[in-house]
Design a protein that fits this description.
Distance between the termini: 46 Å
GO molecular function: ATP binding
Helix content: 25-40%
Radius of gyration: 19 Å
Strand content: 25-35%
Keywords: ATP-binding, Cell membrane, Ion transport, Iron, Iron transport, Membrane, Nucleotide-binding, Transport
CATH superfamily of the largest domain: P-loop containing nucleotide triphosphate hydrolases
CATH architecture of the largest domain: 3-Layer(aba) Sandwich
Strand order of the largest sheet: 6-7-8-3-9-10
Subcellular location: Cell membrane
Pfam families: ABC_tran
Largest sheet: 6 strands, mixed
Number of domains: 2
Protein name: ABC transporter ATP-binding protein
Number of strands: 12
Structural class: alpha/beta
CATH class of the largest domain: Alpha Beta
């Protein structure tokens, strides 16, 4: 990887039969930027990541990585440009850490190349950079939730892409492992020059670790800027549907939220 790659979402609409999800999203993520997507469940955050990873195709509009329209690329070619860490993954009985991380090389090595034994330098670096090389021969199912998430992050890094997409990477983790994963992502972004977009439910984590926050509501971008610009009592109310206050961390200066109570659901939001 020689330079970071930007993401360009241009007028994107996407939905399922009878259920529109994204309703005209325009978003540019600059090369090397770390952006957090926030919003209520169902607002389109994960769908937007899947579109950026080439797993879904827009109904209208287009998504470009660098200057290339994903509509013109194969799934394997897209996987060589952007790695997506899904929110959850199925169990992998009998698979070691080493073999799971090697799965990230599929886009480069192809089905025949995956039959060859042995790790290439990219796999070894991914294991080392995430700090799991000492677990390489352990079964993935024997690891804790936090340890498995680090291994899955190493698998994403093994794709050796310039764009890293993370769908709720801290889900189901305790606070210790949440901070561990997020600090690792920040470090890897700096060391590797990655462009990172991550979906986060915890606004406190987004405000602390991201340099930019994009808020979605009802399939549209409704706020976009630095944490200090975006995280306000109005955002809590309009986007997350809670009343609360916002202060400032006395040491780091990032916004700190104090949610007080949920607000009534908007008329027509119940289905």
């Amino acid at each position: 990887m020689t330079q970071s790659m930007g993401i360009h979402v241009e007028g994107v609409h996407f939905g399922y039969p009878g259920r529109p999800v994204l309703r005209g999203v325009d978003l540019t993520v600059r090369p090397g930027e770390l952006t957090a997507l926030i919003g209520l469940n169902g607002c389109g955050k994960s769908t937007l990541l899947r579109l950026a990873a080439g797993l879904l195709k827009p109904d209208r509009g287009r998504v470009r990585l660098g200057g290339e329209d994903l509509a013109g690329l194969s799934r394997r070619a897209t996987a060589a440009r952007a790695a997506l860490l899904h929110q959850s993954a199925p169990s992998v009985p009998g698979m070691t850490v080493r073999h799971l991380v090697r799965q990230g090389r599929y886009a480069v090595r192809g089905p025949l190349g995956m039959l060859r034994e042995g790790d290439d330098p990219v796999v070894r670096r991914a294991l080392r950079d995430v700090g799991v090389e000492g677990w390489a021969d352990r079964d993935v199912d024997a690891l804790s939730g936090g340890e498995r998430q680090r291994v899955r992050l190493a698998m994403a890094l093994a794709q050796d892409t310039r764009v890293l997409l993370l769908d709720e990477p801290t889900t189901y983790l305790d606070l210790h492992h949440q901070l561990d994963v997020l600090r690792t992502v920040v470090r890897l972004r700096e060391e590797r020059g990655l462009t990172v977009v991550m979906v986060l439910h915890d606004l406190a984590h987004a405000a602390r670790f991201a340099e930019r926050i994009v808020a979605l509501r009802d399939g549209r971008v409704v706020a976009d800027g630095s944490p200090k610009e975006v995280v306000t009592p109005g955002l809590l109310a309009d986007v997350l549907n809670v009343a609360g206050r916002v202060g400032s961390d006395p040491e780091g200066g990032w916004p700190v939220c104090y949610p007080d109570h949920p607000l009534p659901e908007p008329e027509g939001s119940r289905k």
